[in-house]
Amino acid sequence: MTKKKILAIKNKYRNSIYLFFIILFAFYLRTFNLNWDNNYYFHPDERAIIMYAAPLKFPVSLDEFLSISSPLNPHFFAYGNFPLYLLKGLGTLLSPLDTTFSEYGGMHIVGRLISATADTVTVAIIFILGSVLFSRRAGLFASLLYALSVFPIQTSHFFAVDTLLTFFMTTTILLLISFIKSPSKKTALAIGILLGFCLATKVSALILLPYVFMSFLIAFFILRKKTKIYSLIFLILILILSCLSVFFITQPYVAIDFSNFFQQTSQQSKMGSDPFVFPYTLQYVGKISYIYELKNIFLYGQGPITSSICLFGLVIALHSFFKKWKKHVLVLFLASYGVGYFLLFGNFAVGWMRYMLPIYPVLVLFGGYLLSQITDLISPKFAKNYLARKSLLLLLLIFLILYPISFLSIYLYPSTRIQASEWINNNIPPGSTIAVEHWDDALPVNEGQKYTHLSLPLYDPDTTSKWNQIDAMLNV
Which of 11, 80, 158, 332 could form a disulfide with 201 if both were Cys (CB 3.0 to 4.6 A apart)? Predict the structure, then answer.
């Protein structure tokens, strides 16, 4: 065996060890103090999902299954039904360990474990993508950047389907890239299955459809992969049928209760163009599209250091690869997905940070590419100085880890709403009246029956009668 082969084996073994510890650390960060809110369900989406998932049970007959009033019909389509069934099924499976795992009051722990696990697996998918598109070193850097990104860590501490969606969408992109490289029936089948799970998790995954079409276009009409026309049609049919099968199997009441599905989906879609549609979306009135999303990613989602590495890496990659686009079409395909997703959802009237989670894997992949390029440039200068090389990598790691470690300090203390509740109970006499914004949870979260709560209609349109009403309520 040549020295070159021995070195390659050593590097592969070393990279595997690095990846193992990155994944392990990512899972630790995502499960740190998982029950941080002491079962109070402060996240409204998580609360809604669990409220609709907890009562689910199997119907006793086929007629009951096919009925709109079936106990398996969640009657909730703001998200896909697959996450609800997954949560209920896993909660029931784990209920012998703790009966509350299948009930409201403990099911959120199961949901958060699902969320944390899905996001941790995304770390591994990012490594594979980076290795395929750039190099194993780039894949390692990319997986590290995602493992340490604050927003994925925060989102993993809830069960609101976004980490699950990001895992499915990122894996679908990996399969599309594999299909472009080597089209096959198995890959088309896998793409269809994953796409079905994407759509059954959240309907916003429809954005993947143009990229499915693009992958066929690149494979057969740009890269000229040889195939007969009937074989191409067969591949398309495999993909479509597998996608539809998974979609309807994992949420059958989309078809059975279609009118309810259509009504709820249409209502949710209005948020994309009208921030006045719900009281809780009024905060986005006046949002500056794209600038708002970039600010959130830069300041909160990744932090200035990580986001700068990622965005600069994207610019460098596009500048380097665009001139020879045919040679680097897979990288440009990934970039087009990230940019296209950002342009569509960044233009929404509302700007929940979780809407941008699916592009975080794309960002870190280009960040990993940039870091691998930098190490390639500086390595010759420090090739013989082991201490210098490792010191630079350690310094980089320290800078990257500051943000997530600082963020985790939040979970070392009780939630601020719990702290505020304790202060109220200790300092405000029982029987006092506490004003509350309507569409908000009243404080204190415990022993609230000791107080009278006055709900103020602050989200109503600003009119003279509204303020006169609030003034009268406060002066009672």
Answer: 80
CA distance 49 to 81: 9
**The tokens of 214 are what?**
């693009």
**pTM of the full predicted structure?**
0.94
Q: What is the pLDDT of residues 265-282, one digit of tens each?
A: 998 888 888 888 888 888
pLDDT band at 475 (very low <50, low <70, confident <90, very high): confident
Helix (H) or strand (E) holding 444: none
pLDDT at 336 over 90: yes
Mean pLDDT to the nearest integer, 296-316:
95
> Could you give the count of Cα atoms lying within 13 Å of 349 in the half-sphere of its Cβ?
16
Q: Does pLDDT of 28 surpass 90?
A: yes
- What is the Cα–Cα distance from 236 to 187, expressed in whole angstroms? 11
Segment 34-37 long-range contacts (CB within 8 Å, at least 24 positions apart):
34/109, 34/112, 34/113, 34/116, 34/157, 35/108, 35/109, 35/112, 36/157, 36/410, 36/411, 36/415, 37/415, 37/417, 37/418
Question: In this structure, which amino acid lies at residue 165?
Answer: L
Q: Which long-range contacts (CB under 8 A, 24 or more apart) does 216-220 make?
A: 218/180, 218/329, 218/333, 219/179, 219/180, 219/183, 220/183
Q: What is the DSSP letter of 80?
A: -
Please state the rounded mean pLDDT for residues 8-28.
87
**Coil, strand or helix at 182:** coil
Q: For residue range 186-232, list pLDDT tens digits in order.
A: 999 999 999 999 999 999 999 999 999 999 999 988 887 777 888 88
SS3 334: helix
Residue 352's CB is within 10 A of a number of other CB atoms, namely: 17
Q: Are 159 and 111 in contact (CB under 8 A)?
A: yes
Token digits of residue 307: 């986001």
User: d(Cα 278, Cα 324) in Å, to the nearest integer?
Assistant: 47
Report whether 202 contacts 161 (CB < 8 A): yes
Report d(CA 402, CA 305) in Å as an integer.
Answer: 10
Spell out the SS3 assignment of 101-141: HHCCCCHHHHHHHHHHHHHHHHHHHHHHHHHHHCCHHHHHH
**3 falls in which pLDDT band (50, 70, 90)?**
low
Determine the average pLDDT of the residues in 132-137.
Answer: 95
Q: CA–CA separation, 168 vs 357, rounded Å?
A: 12
CA 373/CA 315 separation, integer angstroms: 13
- Residue 264: helix, strand or coil by DSSP? helix
